């Protein structure tokens, strides 16, 4: 260890909701805190800065009714029942292979759910206000609360408080390597600041809250394969997330967790550079690929419950792109434009051949697809704000199970859609105290993690839980890190 390294009690890597929650909590406990942030000050906040920060809560004290159920349903794939049976014991009595199993720890989820309400109350103490605001989901199966002002309000409130209360910020600084003492405890880190100048910080504890690796094409290709070329981060903050926090921990023996081969997918308009330019109106029309063919049920349930799975299927199409095809009857859907966050207009045409030409799709293929779909559409009452069971006829595939109406009234409209990578699922294994585990199930002393850096998700993302995850486990990590330093 360099004797000239700056000394702190807690070093936090990352300045999004997870890092700021950890830093503020540690400061409240009296710790000396450093915060490393790759960006310039004006763009601090990672993904949090750019998100609406929806929270899967039915009130400011309670999570949604399906919160823990959703996580348990999506805890992992083909898990060994003999191993899962061990989780009925106290965590201390789990075997090492269960502690490091690639699944979502039920104790961690219970802690997550029970800590959500107190965490929101804590955020309110910084002046952040919450409400149930309109979202881009016209139809939804669960409530979603949000901070007024979105994630930016969280970043500015917490970062401002940390500045006033003694945190030292290191902007344009990237952590590269954890340092350990002779007993294996993490006692600081090394990194680089502006101009690739080496920097070293000493600390009793390090909190890794530096996001996932959605901004690192090398890691994306490594874990997702060559089709990673077709995805991009959903928002500007994601480009700063290059995976160093995860790699640093893995390199000293940390256990991985979360699905490294997957990520939270959102349907984006590739023409747009706006923040989170989602297209959430495809459930009222059809999706076709570059070949002009339908490939998915566009409306198996409310759009909030299905958009991720559908977007992943778009990712699998030729060139990783699809087109949402609508007609003039979309105006029957109240406020449908609320579900389009792109700053680019719909591609409009007076006929299907003209639309096909503008999209670069074979006109005869598109005509055949729309003709077959129209022939399969039923008569019935269209109810745009509820699941109306207006389904295409049996035998037609892929079937559409809600909001199936003929596409026939010009002008015809289209939006291109690609798969956006909101955040990656692969990260580090933690316990209920946000301590990072090693690959044998032991605790790595002095190392904590929170936010996207921890692995929590498998299968289908539990919508509107990522910002909440950052706040809850950031707060837990900050409290335990500060206690270690005292």
Task: Break the fold down into its secondary structure elements and pairings.
Blueprint lengths: L5 E2 L2 E4 L3 H12 L4 E5 L29 H7 L7 H5 L10 H4 L6 H19 L5 E2 L14 E2 L2 H15 L3 E4 L2 E7 L5 E8 L3 E6 L2 E4 L8 H8 L7 E2 L10 H8 L4 E2 L5 E6 L17 E4 L13 H13 L5 E6 L20 E3 L2 H8 L3 H14 L35 E13 L2 E2 L6 E3 L5 E7 L16 H20 L1
Parallel strand pairs: 1-9, 2-3, 2-10, 3-6, 10-20, 11-17
Antiparallel strand pairs: 4-5, 7-8, 8-9, 12-18, 13-17, 14-15, 15-17, 16-17, 19-20
Helix pairs in contact: 1-6, 1-12, 2-5, 5-12, 10-11
Provide the descriptors you would attach to this structure in a database record.
single chain; 486 residues; alpha/beta; FAD/NAD(P)-binding domain; Flavocytochrome C3, Chain A, domain 1; 6-stranded mixed beta sheet; 12 helices; 19% strand
Which term fits the overall shape? elongated
Which CATH top level class of the largest domain fits? Alpha Beta
Task: State Rg.
Answer: 24 Å
The whole-number mean of residue pLDDT values reads 96
Describe the largest sheet: 6 strands, mixed
Q: How many helices does DSSP assign?
A: 12
CATH domain topology of the largest domain: FAD/NAD(P)-binding domain
CA-CA gap between termini:
21 Å
Number of domains: 2
The assigned structural class equals: alpha/beta
> Order of strands across the biggest sheet?
6-3-2-10-20-19
The CATH superfamily title of the largest domain: FAD/NAD(P)-binding domain
- According to DSSP, the number of beta strands is 20
Q: What fraction of the residues are assigned to beta strands by DSSP?
A: 15-25%
Low-confidence runs of at least 5 consecutive residues? none
**From the coordinates shown, what is the CATH architecture of the largest domain?**
3-Layer(bba) Sandwich
State the share of residues found in helices, binned by percent: 25-40%
């Amino acid at each position: 260890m360099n004797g000239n390294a700056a000394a702190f009690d807690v070093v936090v890597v990352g300045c999004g909701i997870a890092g700021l929650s950890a830093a503020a909590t540690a400061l409240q406990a009296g710790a000396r805190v450093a915060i490393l942030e790759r960006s310039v000050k004006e763009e601090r906040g990672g993904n949090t800065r750019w998100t609406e920060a929806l929270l899967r809560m039915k009130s400011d004290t309670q999570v949604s009714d399906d919160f823990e159920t959703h996580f348990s349903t999506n805890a992992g794939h083909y898990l060994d029942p003999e191993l899962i049976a061990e989780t009925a014991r106290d965590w201390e009595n789990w075997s090492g292979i269960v502690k490091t199993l690639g699944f979502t720890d039920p104790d961690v989820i219970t802690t997550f759910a029970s800590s959500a309400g107190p965490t929101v109350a804590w955020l309110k103490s910084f002046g952040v206000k919450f409400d149930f605001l309109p979202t881009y989901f016209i139809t939804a199966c669960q409530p979603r609360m949000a901070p007024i002002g979105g994630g930016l309000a969280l970043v500015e409130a917490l970062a401002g408080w940390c500045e006033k209360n003694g945190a030292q910020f290191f902007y344009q600084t990237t952590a590269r390597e954890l340092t350990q003492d002779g007993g294996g405890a993490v006692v600081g880190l090394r990194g680089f600041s502006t101009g690739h100048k080496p920097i070293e910080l000493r600390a009793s504890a390090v909190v890794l809250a530096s996001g996932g690796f959605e901004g690192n094409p090398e890691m994306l290709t490594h874990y997702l394969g060559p089709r990673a070329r077709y995805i991009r981060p959903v928002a500007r903050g994601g480009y700063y997330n290059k995976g160093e926090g995860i790699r640093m921990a893995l390199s000293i023996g940390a256990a991985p967790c979360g699905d490294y081969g997957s990520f939270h997918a959102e349907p984006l308009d590739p023409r747009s550079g706006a923040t989170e330019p989602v297209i959430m109106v495809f459930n009222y029309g059809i999706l076709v690929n570059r070949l002009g063919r339908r490939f998915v049920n566009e409306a198996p349930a409310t759009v909030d419950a299905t958009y991720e799975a559908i977007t992943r299927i778009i990712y699998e199409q030729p060139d990783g792109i699809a087109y949402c095809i609508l007609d003039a009857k979309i105006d029957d859907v109240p406020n449908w434009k609320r579900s389009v966050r792109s700053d680019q207009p719909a591609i409009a045409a007076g006929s299907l051949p003209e639309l096909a030409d503008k999209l670069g799709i074979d006109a005869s293929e598109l005509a055949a697809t729309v003709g077959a779909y129209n022939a399969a559409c039923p008569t019935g009452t269209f109810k745009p704000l509820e699941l109306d069971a207006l389904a295409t006829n049996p035998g037609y595939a892929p079937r559409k199970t809600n909001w199936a109406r003929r596409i026939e009234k010009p002008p015809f409209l289209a939006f291109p859609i690609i798969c956006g990578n909101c955040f990656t699922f692969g990260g580090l294994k933690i316990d209920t105290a946000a301590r990072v585990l090693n690959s044998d199930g032991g605790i790595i002393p002095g190392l904590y993690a929170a936010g996207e850096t921890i692995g929590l998700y498998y299968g289908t993302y539990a919508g509107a839980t990522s910002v909440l995850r950052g706040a809850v486990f950031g707060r837990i990590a900050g409290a335990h890190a500060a206690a270690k330093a005292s």
